[in-house]
Amino acid sequence: LIVELEGSSEEQVEAEYEAIGRLCMQCGALEVYIADNLATQDRIWKARKCVAEALRVLSPVYCMEDITVPTSEIPQLLSSISQISKEFDVKIPAFGHAGDGNIHATLLREGMDDATWEATKEKALHEMYSATYRHGGNLSGEHGIGAKRLGPLERFVDRAQMQVLKSIKAALDPNLILNPGKIVDMN
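-> structure tokens emitted (187 positions)
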């Protein structure tokens, strides 16, 4: 967990990071590291920005999700993802943006044959989307619906919302030539 603070004085920021550090330790953090200068802050952010690349080293084939939940639901969602990981025997590391509830839960193929991977991915994604829905979340926070999430989208939006999406699509793309089959099914 990376926490950035700002405040009106150095004393205020120091008091806040000390309090947050204590709280993290009380909640089971293994270590609290305070980046008190620009160089160490840059190193931390560089490491965070390399997470997706590091996952590619573990498994060149993976399925990264972009689910979101209210921030108060993050612990419960992560617990659900852990259960899904165990149930389907697939590693699902998760990282993202805790401040806005955006979680990049990433299924790793790790040596599964094609048939096993496809079956595991389909079942695990179904359960992950179900958990996201139960926790008041949404399918995408940053990367959009695309073709990949078109099927599950119907669970997350009602008829009126879907009609608005279709109306926007029809107005902006009357010939249906831009990204056909993505976000909304016009048939």
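DSSP finds seven helices and four strands in the chain.
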